[in-house]
Amino acid sequence: MNYYDEYSKGHLVLPNVFLAHFSKLFPSAFDFLIWLYFFENQDIAPSEIAEKTGKKLSEVNQAIDNLSKFGAMKVTLIEIDGEMETFFDISSAFKHLDEILGGAVASSTPENEKVQEEGQLKELVSMFEAEMGMISPVQMEELRAWLFEDGYDFSLIKQALREAVLNRKVSLNYIKAILRNWKNDGVNSLQAIESRQMEREEAKRKKPQEDFYIPLDGPWNS
């Protein structure tokens, strides 16, 4: 067994979004490297990091200062038994990430997800009732199944309802057939639907020219 086979068992596990927002979280790549050493062991001494990275202690201390000013690390000096102790807190970077993402991670709790799902179902029921009249409990369960069991996207269900209204065939069976056809064709977003409609319109524009036939032995060829 080599390191490549064992890499996933390492201790440094960070969310992928760190890479997506790297420039907002860390001053530079070297500063991030120093931050990683403290992430792995917050009790490590700066001199030890300097030895491991082959850098001068002054360079490591400068990186720590950069991280502190940038908000990626909090450095606290505390006097213990007459001696000054330094504590490095790297959690500031995670707090900053939460701020950048607008609390998306914190809000994705099971309770909030359930509220969001129920809100989507309620909106669908209102839209369907506007076109079909009162929705029965059985029909409501059908809509619930589309969302949470069949996995149809909320926006696609609304678009399928619009298609049914335009075709004057508003029924759950017809709308479900639209959704099934889209799924079979690999259509899973509104953008994909729009692209397919544009392709069809382009094909219609080209078809009259492609299908126009002039007999080779007509009088206009003489």
Describe the overall structure.
There is one protein chain. The chain has 222 residues and is mostly helical. Helix content is 64%, strand content 6%. It is built from 13 helices and 2 strands. Strands 1-2 form a two-stranded antiparallel ribbon. Helix 4 packs across helix 6, helix 5 (46-53) packs across helix 6 (57-70) and helix 9 packs parallel to helix 11 (154-166). It is elongated, with a radius of gyration of 30 Å. 15% of the residues are buried.
Any chance you could write out the topology, listing elements then pairs?
Layout lengths: L2 H4 L10 H4 L1 H4 L3 H12 L5 H8 L3 H14 L3 E7 L2 E7 L1 H10 L3 H4 L2 H23 L4 H12 L5 H13 L5 H13 L5 H22 L11
Antiparallel strand pairs: 1-2
How many separate helices?
Answer: 13
Which stretches are low in confidence, meaning pLDDT under 50 for 5 or more residues running? Answer: 6-10, 210-214
Order of helices and strands: HHHHHHEEHHHHHHH
Q: Strand share of the residues?
A: 5-15%
The N- to C-terminal Cα distance equals 82 Å
The count of strands amounts to 2
Strand order of the main beta sheet, please?
1-2
Mean pLDDT: 80
Q: What percent of residues adopt helix (DSSP H or I)?
A: 55-70%
